[in-house]
């Protein structure tokens, strides 16, 4: 009788141990995270119980856009520019239309440009967006609430649209934010001079970045969304360029990859890794704040944190032949500082070889 009781107790202990192990495998790892246990700090809009299945939000076969341009990708273009814009950012869109986004033929190559937005709950704002769309015909508004933590959804919709409608009419896609200045001629020249029009994902490469555990940071990453210690290599989401075949690969990968709220990590890191796409660095894609110098911006592909007035000012100066001549021939002592800044940018933006391998 005693031996049977011992066996029963032994089996009970084993059962409880196995049950504990199985349950621990299903629970998110919150060790070392602020407010762990029952007080997990969540990402707004993406709590632990919210599905992150991409196909739940992005329907693979249906056109879901609330606002849709009449001639999206109807014509052949060398480069398609998709500007990720906030619903209320009318001035930014206007500045881009009037400046670097205005030209449709660059170095003999056709360029098209559209603004990609999410939805707003503000009915007055929505009415103004519809008027803007009727006037310019360059607005795409998809059916998700536009917010910082939904930027990943915006990029996946972008990949879907390009894969579904532009695969046979466009060679390259430039994803750019609406607070960026883009020097379109050097970008098109760089793409034109490539030996191939495939296998490209390029921007400012970020290698072996660690998830931020500061819960007050906009880039906070809880373990229930990303349990690993290092992100895959990725390019900054402020602006990057890819060939259309890569856009298709990233979209297919996204449909199998759980949503992660940091857009660039997700799209050009997690999805790229799943798709077998290796992001490449180009130091002329920049996102740092810099001292204003038009000669410097003449040489860069992108620059970040530009107000609408900054965009207009820089574009006007770069179109001034006297200014560009001064920059081109390095006249004046000011160009010494520009050369120093340029060399410093190239040095800072050069990825650490050991980290990036």
UniProtKB/TrEMBL annotation:
Recorded GO CC terms: Golgi membrane
EC number: 2.4.1.-
Alphabetical UniProt keywords: Glycoprotein, Glycosyltransferase, Golgi apparatus, Membrane, Signal-anchor, Transferase, Transmembrane, Transmembrane helix
Membrane topology: Single-pass type II membrane protein
Pfam families documented for this protein: Galactosyl_T
Main EC class the enzyme belongs to: transferase
Domain of life of the organism encoding this protein: Eukaryota
Compartments it resides in: Golgi apparatus membrane
GO biological process: protein O-linked glycosylation
MF terms (GO), sorted A to Z: glycosyltransferase activity; hexosyltransferase activity
Transmembrane stretches, start-end: 7-25
Family according to the record: Belongs to the glycosyltransferase 31 family.
Cross-referenced PANTHER family: BETA-1,3-N-ACETYLGLUCOSAMINYLTRANSFERASE, HEXOSYLTRANSFERASE
The protein, known as: Hexosyltransferase
Record organism: Tribolium castaneum (Red flour beetle)
Gene transcribed to yield this protein: AUGUSTUS-3.0.2_08953
């Amino acid at each position: 009788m005693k031996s049977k009781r011992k066996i029963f107790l032994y089996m009970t202990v084993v059962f409880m141990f196995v049950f504990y192990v199985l349950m621990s495998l299903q629970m998110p790892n919150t060790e070392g995270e602020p407010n762990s246990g029952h007080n997990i700090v969540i990402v707004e809009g993406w709590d632990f119980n919210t599905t992150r299945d991409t196909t739940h939000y992005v329907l693979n076969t249906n056109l879901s856009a609330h606002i849709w341009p009449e001639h999206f990708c109807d014509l052949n273009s060398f480069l398609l520019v998709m500007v990720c814009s906030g619903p209320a950012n009318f001035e930014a869109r206007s500045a881009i239309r009037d400046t670097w986004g205005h030209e449709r033929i660059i170095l003999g190559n056709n360029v098209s440009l559209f603004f990609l937005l999410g939805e707003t709950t503000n009915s007055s704002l929505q009415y103004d967006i519809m008027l803007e769309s009727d006037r310019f015909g360059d607005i795409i508004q998809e059916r998700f609430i536009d917010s910082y933590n939904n930027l990943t959804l915006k990029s996946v919709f972008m990949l879907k649209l390009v894969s579904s409608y532009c695969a046979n009419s466009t060679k390259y896609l430039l994803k750019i934010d609406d607070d960026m200045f883009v020097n379109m001629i050097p970008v098109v020249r760089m793409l034109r001079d490539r030996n191939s029009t495939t296998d490209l994902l390029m921007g400012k490469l970020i290698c072996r970045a660690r998830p931020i555990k500061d819960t007050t940071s906009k880039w906070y990453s809880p373990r229930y969304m990303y349990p690993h210690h290092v992100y895959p290599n990725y390019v900054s989401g402020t602006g990057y360029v890819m060939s259309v075949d890569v856009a298709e690969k990233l979209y297919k990968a996204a449909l199998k990859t759980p949503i992660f709220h940091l857009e660039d990590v997700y799209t050009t890191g997690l999805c790229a890794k799943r798709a077998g796409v290796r992001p490449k660095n180009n130091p002329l894609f920049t996102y740092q704040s810099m001292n204003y110098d038009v000669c410097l911006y003449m040489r860069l592909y992108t620059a970040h944190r530009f107000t609408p007035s900054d965009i207009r000012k820089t574009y006007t100066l770069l179109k001034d032949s006297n200014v560009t001549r001064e920059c081109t021939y390095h006249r004046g002592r000011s160009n010494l500082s520009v050369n120093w800044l340029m060399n410093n940018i190239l040095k800072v933006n050069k990825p650490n070889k050991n980290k990036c391998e």
